Amino acid sequence: MPRTQLSPKPKSKRKSWTSSNMIEAVKAVREKKMGLKKAIKLYCVPKTTLQRFVHSDQPPDEVINTTIGRKPVLQSHLEESLVSYLLVMERNYYGLTRQDVRKMAYQLAVRNNIKHPFRNNIAGRAWLDHFLLRHKDKLAIRSPTGTSNARAQGFNKEAVDKFFNIIEEEFQKHNYPPERIFNVDETGLSIVQSKIVKVIGMRGKRQVGSLTAAERGSLVTVVSAMSASGIFIPPLLIFPRKNMTQTLMKGAPPGTIGRCHPLGWIQANLFTDWFNHFVDKTHPTEASPVLLILDGHYSHTRNLDVLIAARANHVTIISLPPHSTHKMQPLDRSFMSPLKTYYSEEIRQWLLNSNRTLTPYDIAELLGRAYLRCQTGAIAVNGFRVTGIYPINRNVFTDADYIASSGETTLQPRAIHDDLCVPSTITHVAIQIPVSEPQPGPSGQAHRSLPQVFDASSVVLPEHILPVPTPKNKKSNRGRKSSAPTLLTGSPYKKQLEESIKYSAQKGRSRGRGRGRSGRQRKANSSRIHNNQESTSSDSQSSDFSADVSVEESDTDSTESKSALEHAQPTNEDDACCIFCSENYSNNQRGETWIQCQSCEMWAHTECSGCDAEYYICDFCN
């Protein structure tokens, strides 16, 4: 079978007649209203074609649909079943590749005893090209988006309906205009571009490189918010540092605020800072309240300070269903992808035109350029529209979107299969498509005689060769219960959160001494102090004292141990004096370690005290 030709072919004169004229000509000749020659001249149809259609036993509407050229290897009902099977597998996130479809076609031909021209236990690429061409109205080769199993199972109709019930109830109370409906979300950026664009290079070269700023970069979190009318709140940038400097904010979008965290992650206190910034920009009042929609991150839903501030400032907060932000988060649907695309382009332009190395101090400037490019009203409006939040449309998601979570694996009904009896002895294979050996038979043109009629009682369909995988939801009482869409600013949730925080605090205080996490932490701290300090005292008095300290340490609560570690070193402002050698801390030039007595709170060199434990009582107090 020849490959699909990409070059334009000369226009053929075959089948140049119209279907309506041919139908009328066939009817006129069959009903003996006119002869063959008169019908040819009256309806402008070819003689041989009209003769063939007149002598056919099929109705005129069916006979004119006869295809020209070679017949397909698989019969029409098998191809239709394969099309339905491919669509169901794609909806369940188990889409088949080109190679899988070619193997499936070979198995269908072998198991249904259809003569075929396939070789090497796989259908040819030409067959796949023509198959996609015959069903181009339903099938196309797509690049799928990676979706975790939690997202596939978490996005279900029950959770989505519950979210829209909450939204509709709030709209009935306040009737929020689009400029008072906001969505907030976080994303991570780095000095290494996340998207590499295609470039023009030498044909045949095995690898084409593209310059990046570094091998990998540290994470900078960007907290963005936008409204359903196209209003954008200046973002919050969280840098992976301990101390904040205004140099990091050079070139940031106007009104941007900056914070620091050792890992660059969003935390509850940092989100509280952003919320105060959000209130300052939106100015919510009792007459003009604000609706804020966010995901279920713990810094959002377990943040009592934010909930109290929201209730006091007339801000209603609603959380999205868990594992559904890829479908229902407006920022994820329309804003984050253009932002990272433009940001990666700004990095590429920087490397192309700048003579100095890109550093974390330049992230805000590059973000400022990219942020202003994608900060458009169309992006914001489309984000809320495709998620059904504004205008409210709970039917924006069809039943096909919930197939993966519902576990439905049945194929679409096909009327052509109603009279087919499928044997129950078909072996199901759930991992890979099995390969069957071809049946011996004549070779050459006889082997390529494609039309074949087989018994319908022994038909094998694609779902019998490779059944659609059925997800198994294992129920367990272990671990944290999954969340649900909630009105976070409502009194029931606020009361539940306060009780949960109070219970966690009581549970932490009731832990046994020297056990669990606190005991392991104290042991680790003691080991670290012992490794970093070398005691020079070897007299028996010091040894006896160390033994007493170890006994005292074992009976000390973990909270007292933490207090001792917080005062590990004096400050220059105190200018402490060693109680043994009388040397001032300000004159310490060798970087010696100091330790504080927990009784008199006096300081001493670790070497002078001869103590390597974290809980210390000096000789005078002892």
Describe this structure in words.
Helices cover 40% and strands 8% of the residues. It contains 23 helices and eight strands. About 14% of the residues have low confidence. α14 crosses α15.
What is the CATH C-level name of the largest domain?
Alpha Beta
Mean pLDDT: 80
Structural class: alpha/beta
Number of helices: 23
Helix content: 25-40%
Secondary-structure blueprint:
Blueprint: H1 19-30, H2 36-43, H3 47-54, H4 60-63, H5 76-91, H6 98-111, H7 125-134, H8 149-154, H9 157-174, E1 181-189, E2 220-227, E3 232-240, E4 257-261, H10 268-282, E5 290-294, H11 298-301, H12 304-312, E6 315-319, H13 325-328, H14 330-353, H15 363-374, H16 377-386, H17 403-406, H18 462-465, H19 491-509, H20 516-532, H21 540-554, H22 558-566, E7 594-596, E8 603-605, H23 606-609
Parallel strand pairs: 1-5, 3-4, 5-6
Antiparallel strand pairs: 1-2, 2-3, 7-8
